[in-house]
Every structure is written in structure tokens, then in C-alpha cells.
Amino acid sequence: MPVFDLQRRLAAEAIGTAFLVATVVGSGIMAERLTGDTALALLGNTIPTGAMLIVLITLLGPVSGAHFNPAVTLVFALRRELSGREALLYVAAQIIGGIAGTMIAHTMFALPVVDLSMKVRTGGAQWFAEAVAAFGLVTTILAGLRVRPTAIPALVGLYITAAYWFTASTSFANPAVAIARSFSNTFSGIRPQDLPGFITAELLGAVAALMFANWLFRETTSQTTSIEAEA
Predict the structure, then answer these.
(1) Which residue of 56, 73, 136, 137 lies most exposed, with the fewest beta carbons within 10 A?
(2) pTM score, two decimals?
(3) Residue 8 parent element (H or E)
């Protein structure tokens, strides 16, 4: 597999996160304009997001790992697959790309380029939902790497599609996306003051998933094998 320099990896993280957020925000705006039914609007927001994740991870995964998510980057830094400097630059690229994605979506729909959200998303239930969403996402990624790496694009896209519906928070599961969505007073928005609770829960869920995956996939030597080795 080819190895890409840091500049190209950061570009992949920025453009990937930009397209992801443009899809989340743009499909939310389109869905809201086309229907007054909240459930139908959420469906119209969900399907494009899952589909775009499959495309982005398939195409950009070989370049940067296709994190597009500071929580995922944190996990790979803790696994020592990224240096601290690389991780910080990844996160910066993701946040910048995400905000650019919101601006792109707003421009396409003739909205103010930046419009801080007033959509309330807070409370213990929503924070817990974000921790669950991030735990499931990171577990999906780590398990996929272990058992079927080629399926990760589909696994992540399908997981997020499902998590939109089974979590009370509609599964942000991504601090960069949460920050970017705070700049959009639309269907997908979140108030800036609600970000700390979401981001904290997402990071905690991601770290918990790393600990769980390390335990779950730790291979142990069977008693039979040990006896044979001693003989």
C-alpha cells in the first residue's frame, strides 16, 4: 500500500470532513424544505450521510485513514499509530474542513454563510446517547480492522445510518462535525453552548470503545497449547 506524506493526509482529512458536513447540513436543509414531517426529514438526512461515508472512506481511507473525526484520531493516537503532532494536525484539519463544509452547504442553499445555531441539544439523555453513538462507531471501526478491513466503509456507513435512528441525539459521534453544525441554524444544527456536553461524551465513548476492543480481541493461549509448548 502506498504511503502518503503528512500534507496529503491532512488535505484528505480536511476535504473528507468538508464533504461529510456538507452532506449532513445540506441534506438536512433539503429535507426540511421538501417536507414538514420531521421523521421524513430525518430519513432524508440519514440516507445521504451514510452513503457519503461509504464513498469518502473508500476513496480517502488509503490516503489518511479517513478519520474525519477527532474522537477516532484520539483512539489511533492512543494506539500509537499517530504521533501527538500528527493527531493535533489531523484534528485541526477536520475542524477547519467541517466548518468549510457548513459554509459550502449554506452557500449552495442561499443561506447566510455562517449562522450560529439556536437548536437546543442538551441533557443527560442526549449526552449518554452521544457516548453510546461514539462507543459503537469506534468499536465498529476497530472490530472491522480486526475481522474484515475491506468492509469498513460499508460497516461505518451502515452503523451511522442506524445510529441516526436508535440514539436520542441522532448520533453526531464526532466532535468536528458537532462544531461545524453549531455554525448552522438549520435542521442539523446544535447550539454552541451545547457543544461541551456532546464533545465530552463523544470522547469518553471513544476511549471506552478502545478499552473494550483491546479486551475483546486480546488473544489468549489455550491450556492445550500451553501444555504442548511445555512438552
Answers:
(1) 136
(2) 0.93
(3) helix 6-34
State the Cα–Cα distance between residues 71 and 58, nearest whole angstrom. 20
- Each residue's pLDDT tens digit, 61-118: 999 999 999 999 999 999 999 999 999 999 999 999 999 999 999 999 999 999 999 9
Q: What are the grid coordinates assigned to 53, written together?
A: 461515508
CB atoms within 10 A of CB 109: 13
Cα–Cα distance, 86 to 92 (Å, whole number): 10
How many helices and strands (H and E) does the chain possess?
9, 0
Q: Which three cell numbers stand for residue 35?
A: 417536507
Q: Is the Cβ–Cβ distance between 153 and 58 less than 8 Å?
A: yes
C-beta of residue 156 within 8 angstroms of C-beta of residue 53: yes
Q: What is the rounded distance in angstroms from the CA atom of residue 68 to the CA atom of residue 189?
A: 18
Distance (Å, rounded) from C-alpha 11 to C-alpha 94?
9
Contacts of 47 (CB under 8 A, 6+ apart): 27, 161
Going by C-alpha positions, the residue among 25, 198, 61 that lies closest to residue 125 is 198
Homologous superfamily of the 6-216 domain (CATH):
Glycerol uptake facilitator protein. (1.20.1080.10)
Q: Rounded to an integer, what distance in angstroms lies between the CA atom of residue 197 and that of residue 50?
A: 24
90: three-class secondary structure by DSSP: helix
State the Cα–Cα distance between residues 66 and 69, nearest whole angstrom. 8
- Between CA 75 and CA 64 the distance in angstroms is 15
